[in-house]
Structures are given as C-alpha cells and as structure tokens.
What we know:
The protein is mostly helical. The chain has helices spanning 13-48, 71-91, 94-113, 118-123, 142-148, 163-166, 170-181, 187-198, 201-212, 215-226, 231-234, 238-258, 262-280, 289-299, 303-324, 328-341, 349-381, 397-418, 425-428, 430-436, 446-463, and strands at 61-63, 464-466.
Amino acid sequence: xxxxxxxxxxxxSGLGLRRDxxxxxxxVVAATLLVVTAALVGVAIKRxxxxxxxxxxxxxxxxLPHVGPGTPAALAVAAAVVAYGPTLAAxxxxxxxxxxxxxxxxxxxxxxxxxxxxxxxxxxxLTTRYEYLQVIDRFHDIPATLRDFTHHILxxxxxxxxxxxxxxxxxxxxxxxxLDRIGLxxxxxxxxxxxxxxxxxxxxxxxxxxxxxxxxxxxxxxxxLVLAPAAVWMGTSADGYFAAVAAWFVALLAxxxxxxxxxxxxxxxxxxxxxxxxxxxxxxxxxxxxxxGAGVLVLGRRRIGVLPFLLAGAAVIPLVFTFAGFDWxxxxxxxxxxYHQGAGGFRPYGYWVWANLACTVMVVGPxxxxxxxxxxxLLARERGRLVPVRNMPRxxxxxxxxxxxxxxxxxxxxxxLSGMSKAETERIWLPFALWLLAxxxxxxRPRAWLAAQAGLALLLNHLLLTGW
Length: 468
C-alpha cells in the first residue's frame, strides 16, 4: 500500500511538514530568482545588441496586458479544479477520471487560448508565415513532395520551406494536409485539433503513472496535469499535439511492461512502437523520448519480452517514409545547417543554456518545482535501492514515480545541452515538461499548490501575448 505522503517519514508529522514546506518554498524562491535573472539579463542583452530574437526574454512573447472572452471561463475552470479537483480525482471511477481529466484539460486550454480571442488565440496561430498551413497547397501530390522535401530545407534553396516545416519531419505537416483533405481545413480546425488531441496527454500520463507506480499516486497527479501552466502554450501549438503522441507511446509501453498476459503485452508493445516511430517523424528532437522509454523498460517486469514487438512497431513509420522517398538523416543534417542559417546562428548559447530552464519553470509552475525538490530528496535518501536493476519492480511506488519523472528531466537536459533549442522552449519542450507535472503527487495541501499553478497561468496569459 502506498505510504501516506502527507505524513513525515521520520515520524514527527507536524514538525516534518513545516520543515518540508519551508524547503519547498526555498526551492520555489530559487526558481523565481532564476526567472528574474533570465529576464534582467535578457533585457540587458537586448538593449546592448538584440541577438535573442524574443520580445519578452526569456519567453517568446510581448508585454500586452489584456482580457478576452476566455477570461471568465478560465477563472471558472481554475476555481473548480482548485476547489473540487483533489476530491473528485480520489473518488471518481478510474475510466471516468481519465475522461474527466481530458475534458477539463481541454476546457482549461481552450479558455486560456480564448483570452486572446478566437481569431488571434486559435484560428490564426497555425496560419502565420512560419507555420504548417502556409504550405498545404504544395502537398497536392504527397509522394512527389516527400521525395522532394529535403531540396527545400536550406535558406537559399528554391521555394524553401517556412521555418516550422523545414524544422520538422514531414509527418507534422502531413497531419494538417490530411485534415484539410477530409474537410477540416483552415486555422480554426487545425487549432482545435492541437488542443483536443494535446489535452489527452493528461490521460496518457495518468495511465503511465498508474501502471508503473500505483493508482493512488496517479489520482493525486490528475489535478496538476489538468491545471498546468503549460496550457498557455498547448493552445494552439502543434507541439501540444506532438506531446500527446509521444505521451501515448510511453503509456502503451508502460502497459506493455506491466501487462498480466503475453498477448496484451505484445499488442501494447506494437502500438507503442508505432507511436514512437510517428513521434520521430513529427519532431527530430523527440527521438529523445527513447530515454524515457528506456526508463519505462527498466521499471517494468517484461523488459526483454516486449523488445522485439516494440522494435517491429517502431520500424513501420520510418519504412513507409523511406520507401516514399524521404531521407530522415539527410533532412536532419540539413535542418542543423538551416537552424544556424537563421536565429539559431546568432542566439547566444551561453544565455539560453540556462535561460531555457527559466522558461521551463514558467511552463511547469511552482508546484512542480516543489515536487522536484521532494523527488530529489527521495532519490538521495533511497539511492542505494537502485542496485541491482532486478530490484526495480519491487521499489516503492513513490520511488518509481520519481525515476519516471527524472527520465523525462534527463531528456530535457540533453535537449538543452544540444544547443538545438535556443529560445522558444516553452513550446518546443512541452512533450518533456508535461511529465514533470507528475511530481505534484508528492505534495501535501494540493489545493494551495493548485491555486499557485492556476495563478501563474492566468497571469502569464493575461499580461503577455505569447507566440503560441
């Protein structure tokens, strides 16, 4: 049975709770100082020579206090989740909880997007000169376009792709091409797709936490996944859609390594492989989800048995695109060159390598910062239990949750150190950052932390006009 996380493990619950709360607040203050420092240094750099190419460093945004039609709805959703979220998450039937989490995350994301109005907040987001809908008409012959895709990545090449098309494998653009083909064309439908699909990430994380840790922790995680500050950028960024595909890969893999029967394990592993292959053809950087997948395999019982089926599933999408004429590796190397031809060539690595983490603080919120502090403490206290690896399935539920979250944090750090994500990481890293929210399960007094999460999101969305 899961230990009651509201009591201090050393016995003196009152004194321990106060001490842990102080440490949580110290961690939040330190994270706040990181954000303030990134903002002040960013402003100084912009005044000297604007090589950051962002309006309100470290975020890709502009200062514009405003309210909109989504304001009342956002306040209502926030108040409802803070007041009733923890109780409902503990009591609802499991499948109902998954559906409720998806629905509430969708409502939260839509309401925040509508603070900017329908046109500016949703319908126009994916139609700008940087975005996918600019090139729908160039995919009238999909096989021919895939064969020719790499010839238009570099600046200076004929009819070079806009930045986001050049910066992603073609499955990203093909999603919106196919939506257009079935009659769901235009920015409104594209935005609604990204929000509604992206919101399923909450359910995917819950499924994973339940499979690898336990249901109690998953239920305690639910309100933090629903009321995430990350929703500011989930609506309507295509990266929210990418986050959902990657999250369901992890969820299916978690089900595969914990399934009671071989048939279910193999089926889930094949599905996980298919989604991992698709993930890699939606975004080059999301290949780092292999690190999270490896963490799931280590935590599971059926590690070796699922591998052939996982690999078989993972080969399908790459084979389809390769036979269609698209060379992933060639495209990636050309992307690296294109990246340095544009803003990536002059944005300073020395600033963004740490300012990116300040962006992440605003995406995940103070509750996640406090939860990560507790996760590191738990890991340090019980690190001796990590060896040998065969002990993994017998680790406590909290410890297994921490290892899953740290695998996601490791992937995020690798992305940071790569230098291929200088700025705009508030949306680019959404697929990784959303997994960090699960540490909310380690926090006592969830309503106070949820209020802090909601307050941050509401302030960001009403004071800034974000790029997504």
